[in-house]
């Protein structure tokens, strides 16, 4: 079909079976936008919610094509889009539309792909690393030598946060329920990682901070994690809530927040304004991209699927099996399947 592309389409609210690969018209870049040929796009927890009809796309984003991040090649630039040229390798965050062969995005929300990275590695960076960077450094005001508790440490965001915390001079401690993920994270040098369901977890976390308590908690879990957070938070500690995997409602003792002079912050990336997303992208690109080339930071790719196997990718994430990111690739290369 001339002027058409393949895209993942959410055909109705439901399970992975409602996802279909369909021919849709190519998107058209606006004056300040880039048209990008997507090479790889990653999956996010938000895609599962969107598929179930619980997290509609924000205004301006394609309503039925999911995908919050991508890596690809610039194909064309709008007349007022600056800083990029056709052929450039770029990556970035989106309000949606990334799980398609082509997409458009504002030129200010695009970053260059470090030369050392493959398409799959690059696609695993934007959403996870920008979210974690913002939570740690902007919302959480992480200082060198502070301790950081990373919930769901084996998630896409968690694996990014663990590395960023360490790169920022902090001492991260991870929590994840799956023994195999704890083993593999620790084997890769991301340690210590404990089981949040182990009754001794709060004591272990406090011991890992030398008895002081945790300065900054990156909360990806929400309601069920509050009792542990209340126990381990240090005086003047901060809790940054960016995920609600276990639910959003729980009882909080406000007296404890006062006694510890604690700060509780909530944050979300997808619904932010263009200016906010552009400023975060620029700051991250300037400060953090060089660390990927040096190997201080590296995206964790659990596996990749060709686009037509998007249902399998959703099912895998829903089973909580991934350690790091699940990537969708645009080439239907049988050799890449299930890697
Ligand atoms: N605020 C933002 O802007 C923003 C942006 C991106 C992502 N997020 C949030 O960050 C979180 C992680 O996203 P992701 O895409 O990186 O996730 P992911 O890779 O799918 O990993 C999530 C992991 O969390 C653990 N988990 C699942 N349900 C849980 C529960 N009920 N209680 C405790 N742990 C649970 C599971 O690991 P174990 O079973 O091994 O524990 C699961 O593998 C999500 O909540 C997502 O919505 C927020």
Give me the count of strands: 15
Order of helices and strands: EEEHEEEEHHEHEHEHEHEHEHEHE
Number of domains: 2
Q: Tell me the Rg in angstroms.
A: 20 Å
- According to CATH, the homologous superfamily of the largest domain is Medium-chain alcohol dehydrogenases, catalytic domain
Calculate the terminal CA-CA distance, rounded to whole Å. Answer: 30 Å
Number of helical segments with 4 or more residues: 10
Which sheet architecture does the biggest sheet show? 7 strands, mixed
Second rung of CATH, namely the architecture of the largest domain: Alpha-Beta Complex
Helicity range: 25-40%
What structural category arises from helix and sheet content?
A: alpha/beta
Each distinct ligand: NADP nicotinamide-adenine-dinucleotide phosphate
* CATH C-level label of the largest domain: Alpha Beta
Examine the coordinates and then state which fold CATH places here, giving the name of the CATH topology of the largest domain.
Quinone Oxidoreductase, Chain A, domain 1
Shape: globular
Question: What's the short story on this structure?
Answer:
This protein has helices at residues 45-51, 119-123, 126-139, 156-167, 179-187, 201-208, 226-232, 254-259, 274-293, 310-318; strands at residues 4-10, 19-25, 33-42, 69-77, 89-93, 102-106, 110-112, 147-150, 171-175, 193-194, 214-219, 233-241, 263-266, 301-306, 325-329.
């Amino acid at each position: 079909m001339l002027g058409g592309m393949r895209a993942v389409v959410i055909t109705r609210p439901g399970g992975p079976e409602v996802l279909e690969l369909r021919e849709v018209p190519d998107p058209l870049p606006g004056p300040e936008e880039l048209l990008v040929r997507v090479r790889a796009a990653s999956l996010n927890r938000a895609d599962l919610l969107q598929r179930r009809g619980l997290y509609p796309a924000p205004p301006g984003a394609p309503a039925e094509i999911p995908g919050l991040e991508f890596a690809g090649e610039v194909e064309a630039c709008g007349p007022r889009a600056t800083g990029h040229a056709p052929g450039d390798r770029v990556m970035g965050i989106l309000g949606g539309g990334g799980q398609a062969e082509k997409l458009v995005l504002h030129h200010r929300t695009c970053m260059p792909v470090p030369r050392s990275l493959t398409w799959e590695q690059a696609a695993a960076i934007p959403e996870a690393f920008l979210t974690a960077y913002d939570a740690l450094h902007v919302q959480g005001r992480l200082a060198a030598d502070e301790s950081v508790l990373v919930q769901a440490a084996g998630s896409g965001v968690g694996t990014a946060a663990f590395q960023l915390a360490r790169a920022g001079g902090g001492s991260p401690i991870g929590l994840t329920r799956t023994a195999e993920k704890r083993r593999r994270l620790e084997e890769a040098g991301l340690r210590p990682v404990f089981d949040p369901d182990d009754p001794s977890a709060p004591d272990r976390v406090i011991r890992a901070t030398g008895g002081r308590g945790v300065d900054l908690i990156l909360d990806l879990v929400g309601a069920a994690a509050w009792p542990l957070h209340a126990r381990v938070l240090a005086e003047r500690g901060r809790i940054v809530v960016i995920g609600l995997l276990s639910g959003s409602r729980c009882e909080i003792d406000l007296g404890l927040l006062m006694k510890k002079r604690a700060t509780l912050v909530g944050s979300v990336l997808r619904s932010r304004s263009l200016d906010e997303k552009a400023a975060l992208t620029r700051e991250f690109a300037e400060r953090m991209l060089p660390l990927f080339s040096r190997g201080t930071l590296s995206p964790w790719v659990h596996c990749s699927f060709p686009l037509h196997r998007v249902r399998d990718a959703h099912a895998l994430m829903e089973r909580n099996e991934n350690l790091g990111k699940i990537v969708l690739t645009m080439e239907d290369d049988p050799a890449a399947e299930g890697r």
